[in-house]
């Protein structure tokens, strides 16, 4: 990694953050807002074919802003107010650096990295553009490029590596997670801050199927939605700052993945409710302004996504997972009522199972919110909205269940739908979203139930009794302990996963040869002794990513005659053997008179040449 290049990027990010804060953006939202603003600008640059130039312009513009604010600060102009350092800041910095260090040394292993996410980043980094119809290397051409654009920007300055990719995505996630502290009423209260830290740590439990050492966006979607919701609350009394915030975050979310629509609906509803609740105008003025403001904000936010859909339809004749009512109608017409009913019964069994991680998460959220409502309402004699929040979150869960079932019926082949392929992944995203929403409401309610409501009077003596003071201190210690322990568990769990993956196919390819970085069309045969890797195309996708070719194919079965074996091998230009394959080695010995076990070889007419 180029530390100098990383410094250039960070300086540019600081410059944007300073500008945004002077425009009224919360310091807890300035980092993620700066990142998303750059993503949207880079998206525009990529669409007009100047991605690399755009990356440089965007970054240098940030540095120029930093220089401007630094110069003005010497003249004591446009200075920012120092927000102070709190306990949760130390938690975020210390454990964020620890996780970042682990991720930087993590390999990419998950299937979806090679079917799309990592290969998309590699394509844009080395080609400097979005894929076109002729670029068969990219299969899921309808997937929007937001996260890939951000990671490509970071790699432009740090250099290309899998560790840098993971580090870049983690920075995006961590900046979005930091936004939740914007909802705190009193940031000097350690208990509330550490509760949000604990929420961040617990959220990774429901991301266990993916973890942070992958470039999949199952965690990115909910955490960006959480940041959007935190910002709506923070800017609730500034309607035009609020509109800008919502427009940016919704636009960025829609450019992350097509399935972001559900999260956008949640944001849109909360945005509209906030406009209504904080209206101070006459009802007849508000009746006109609020719908117009909401429509203009969300309409503006949808423009980049609509342009992307137009780009997909005009560039690619067929695109996987493209949003198409005709495709949905064709899929539904092919499903019988009996088939749909079988999927529904399987779906119902899954959501009613206490062994389901997402079901456990839903129960956990409800138990905590309802329990807290009872304690605050009857213990502290304080009215609160936590019961209403629990009901609201359950409605969100039910709506998402409906949309998820619709996806299985409309978008998935029966063989995958009947297995509820990816169920816990998809539901995990909604559990994460609602976990954060519940926690933000919880800390607000807890703060409102404290004995002393005047922040200036709060000190070590501002408790109702010595018992409540001791309970607060002990509670802070316990919550802080679990926040640290659970985040440390995620770090060690990621380390353990990396160690367990040391002999997986992608790492075997790394041991056999150096990665190729020039986009090509070389025909490569991947000899894989594991039939499953070939059947689900994992071997082919991993090799396509590693050797940067759209013509890598995996094969396991070589029970053929020597003549057929030679004909098969000669139809390729290279053969890679990541793991010893007994049949292939014996036939190679017989046909080419070479003893070969593993490695990358260039195929000649009468022999195989080992490549280094």
Q: Describe the main β-sheet briefly.
A: 5 strands, mixed
- Tally of separate helices: 24
Strand percentage lies at under 5%
Rounded to the nearest angstrom, the distance between the terminal CA atoms is 23 Å
Mean pLDDT: 91
Radius of gyration based on Cα positions: 27 Å
Keywords: Membrane, Transmembrane, Transmembrane helix
Protein name: ABC transporter permease
Organism: Levilactobacillus fujinensis
Identify the notable features of this structure and list them briefly.
transmembrane helix, mainly alpha, transmembrane, membrane, ABC transporter permease, 24 helices, 5% strand, 5 strands, single chain, 612 residues, five-stranded mixed sheet
Account of the 3D structure:
The chain crosses the membrane at residues 6-24, 31-51, 57-75, 87-104, 164-184, 191-210, 216-235, 247-272, 292-310, 351-374, 386-410, 431-451, 471-491. It comes from Levilactobacillus fujinensis. This is ABC transporter permease. Keywords: Membrane, Transmembrane, Transmembrane helix. With 612 residues, the chain is mainly alpha-helical. Helices cover 66% and strands 5% of the residues. The chain has helices at residues 3-22, 30-47, 51-74, 87-104, 111-127, 146-158, 162-178, 190-203, 220-234, 239-254, 261-277, 283-315, 325-333, 337-352, 357-379, 386-410, 414-417, 423-448, 466-500, 505-512, 531-535, 538-547, 562-570, 582-592; strands at 520-527, 549-555, 574-577, 599-603, 608-611. The chain has a five-stranded mixed β-sheet. Helix 5 packs parallel to helix 22 (538-547), helix 9 runs parallel beside helix 11 (261-277) and helix 16 packs antiparallel against helix 18 (423-448).
